[in-house]
Amino acid sequence: MTGVAIGGFMATGKSTVGPLVAARLGVPFVDLDRAVEGAAGASVGELFAREGEAAFRARETRALREILAGPDVVLALGGGTLHHGDNLERLRARYRVVVLDLPWEDLAPRLDRGAGRPLAGGGRALWEQRRPGDLRAGTPVDVRGLAPDEVATAVLECL
């Protein structure tokens, strides 16, 4: 099996769908943000506030490289992971990349509910900036109107 990386903008459901996909494939699930938090002993929000985005991205890249050096997993990426350094190339070398996609109108209410997202204030402008790269990074999955179990099925169909 090849590992599966689930990318997309924040609040598209990567951390919710990832465990469902992993269970169906019989492999471990790893949330990259949680891996960074565990290594740092601080939340993503705290790391952004204390160290800034560049330092967080460096931590994220280190964690990603460690994960990619291990056994295959289903990996939920951070919203900006695919846009930093050579992360995408490293992922593509070993993993299938699937990108969860939502139109802005469906995504905006989710961002309003998502506490602890340090870049959520970037809103639509950040979504517009990242979305084209996200959609080119991997196989896009339109998750509009789908329940998590249905999204997991759609992700598996892409594989």
Question: What's the quick description here?
Answer:
By secondary structure, the chain is of the alpha/beta class. Helices cover about 55% and strands about 15% of the residues. Strands 2-3-1-4-5 form a 5-stranded parallel beta sheet, sandwiched between helices.
Task: Provide a descriptive summary of the structure in words.
With 159 residues, this protein is an alpha/beta fold. The chain has a single domain (3-158), classed as P-loop containing nucleotide triphosphate hydrolases (Rossmann fold), CATH 3.40.50.300. 56% of the residues lie in helices and 14% in strands. The protein has helices at residues 14-25, 32-40, 44-51, 53-68, 87-94, 104-113, 123-137, 148-158; strands at residues 3-8, 29-31, 74-76, 95-101, 139-142. A 5-stranded parallel beta sheet has the order 2-3-1-4-5, with helices on both faces. It is globular, with a radius of gyration of 14 Å. It starts with a strand and ends with a helix.
* Rg (C-alpha, Å): 14 Å
Strand order of the largest sheet: 2-3-1-4-5
Chain-averaged pLDDT: 89
Q: Please, what is the oligomeric state?
A: single chain
Q: The CATH topology, please?
A: Rossmann fold
Helix/strand order, N-terminal first: EHEHHHEHEHHEH
Outline the fold blueprint.
Blueprint: E1 3-8, H1 14-25, E2 29-31, H2 32-40, H3 44-51, H4 53-68, E3 74-76, H5 87-94, E4 95-101, H6 104-113, H7 123-137, E5 139-142, H8 148-158
Parallel strand pairs: 1-3, 1-4, 2-3, 4-5
Helix pairs in contact: 1-8, 2-4, 3-4, 4-5
What characteristics describe this protein?
159 residues, alpha/beta, Rossmann fold, five-stranded parallel sheet, 5 strands
